[in-house]
Amino acid sequence: MAGKTVIVFDFGKTIIEYDSNNWVVDELGATVLFNKLRLTMLWNSITDWIMKELHEQGKTIQHIVEAAYDIGGDLRIVSDANLFFVGTILNHLVLRDYFSEINTNPSFVNEQGRLRILPSPDFSKSSPTMGVIIERIQASVAAEGNKTIIYLGDGADDYCPSLKLSEGDFVMPRKNFPVWDWISKNPLLIKAKIHEWTDG
């Protein structure tokens, strides 16, 4: 890999202005069901269940692709979304080829044409462990020499990866979003240089 900088992005509300899971669910008219299921199920299980319900209502992968399309250095993504939504949106934005790695929950279209969303082994059952992924990225780039990591994120789940960064790295929390609040409460826990941002 060329260059001395690895730039890692969260996806929803960072690369795109929306949470990709919520946006697709809203576009396909399943918001009420989604909100009801949130009381008793984990996020990826809910999204997978919604895809089952939509499939039974005649919503096809084409509908999901069209909904995702409407959203419109060494770049990598670490996200708690899923590969179908992230990949579809990146392809639509003609950005996919810019990213050397996408770390997210796996997904696939089954024999019936239904989108399945599975939990990633890198994520715990209740919340993403993006810090583990950052550690893996750090280990993989260490062999390539001294590289700087820049991490951009917005959500509370971006706090753990921020704690894993080293001196000489940069964390870029989106101002007035949950990760910004967490970092602002105790910036001394962060070894990386902190530079907030508000929009692209």
From TrEMBL:
Chain residues that bind Mg(2+): D10, D154
Entry annotated with the keyword Hydrolase: yes
Superkingdom of the organism of origin: Eukaryota
Entries under SUPFAM superfamilies matching the protein: HAD-like
Cofactor: Mg(2+)
One Gene Ontology term of the molecular function aspect: metal ion binding
UniProt keyword annotations, A-Z: Hydrolase, Magnesium, Metal-binding
InterPro entries: HAD-like_sf, HAD_hydro_PyrdxlP_Pase-like, HAD_sf, Pase_PHOSPHO-typ
Pfam families: Put_Phosphatase
Gene3D superfamilies tied to this protein: HAD superfamily/HAD-like
UniProt-listed NCBIfam families: DKMTPPase-SF
Protein name: Pyridoxal phosphate phosphatase-related
Species, as recorded: Parasponia andersonii
